[in-house]
Amino acid sequence: MCPNRPDEHPAPGAYVTRFAPSPTGPLHLGHAYSALIGYRRAQARGGTFLLRIEDLDQARSRPEWEELLMWDLSWLGIDWPRPAWRQSERLDAYGAALDQLWARGLLYPCRCSRADIRAAADAPQEGAPRFGPDGLIYPGTCRPAAPQVPPGPRPTDCALRLDMVRATAGMDPLWFDESGASPDGQSGRIEVTPQDLIEGVGDVVLARRDMQAAYHLAVVVDDAAQGVSEVVRGADLFDATAIHVLLQRLLGLPHPAYHHHGLIRDEAGKRLAKRDDARALATYRDAGLSPADIRRMVGLD
Ligand code: GLU
């Protein structure tokens, strides 16, 4: 396969970005920072800022969190075209992408629990357990020695993993353009080699058992379907971008540019999480702070 061609990137001028929170808790200062950066980048370019609700984790997503996050964003002065897309309503699109990969023998069913994976990764013959963007790198317990040819129907009662060795076979390095920075300061044209993906990422889950889609697949399908030209998000997702660029290539989708920004941390230097309710935007609002106060707090005055 040939490397990405420059003409696969969207034309300058058609700037579209998105903010893609999961409605699993209140938005905090880190979300405000991310959404404001994306919104400002879209405004500065006469572009479009989209809100996308990433609610594939149905066990933790709640309509009341969705309602609150929309309220928080509006309060900050952020606007987006209605209705916002919800990933739970896009399962047909994700199914079609999974079908393509399944038909090419690049996916395999996996019935391992987290405990199974931990136990297999800890086995002495595996060496030290290795970690990638999704945590422990899958030790390959369910990976078939050879793909079933022709493949039968795609199973829908278990997780599906991407066979990374097969998916990258014969592939030249991929790349993406980074206008922000990785946590260790990488910027500009970032190269992703098959070796990086095989050793540093491994066989990622593309369909959850309960949902028949998973974050990496859904984000790539939606960014393409929504014409996103630049993904703006926190540097904690920088390493996942290698997976996204690979999936774009495998599915014949365009490659957006990327802008990973630094993370807002607490006094101890720890990244803020949704469970840190003390830093929820709603808490600050209830205490009488204004959107301008929030902008000042995240250094975006
Ligand atoms: N849903 C992810 C989050 O809340 C963001 C995913 C993305 O921007 O690609 O962290």
UniProtKB/TrEMBL annotation:
Keyword Metal-binding among UniProt keywords: yes
- Family annotation (Gene3D superfamilies): HUPs
Query: What's one GO MF term for it?
Result: ATP binding
What GO terms describe the biological role, i.e. biological process, of this protein?
Answer: glutamyl-tRNA aminoacylation
- Keyword Transmembrane listed? The answer is no
Question: Which terms are listed as keywords in the entry?
Answer: Aminoacyl-tRNA synthetase, ATP-binding, Ligase, Metal-binding, Nucleotide-binding, Protein biosynthesis, Zinc
Q: What is a single cellular component term in the Gene Ontology annotation?
A: cytosol
**The organism sits in which domain of life?**
Bacteria
Protein family per UniProt: Belongs to the class-I aminoacyl-tRNA synthetase family.
> What name goes with this protein?
tRNA glutamyl-Q(34) synthetase GluQRS
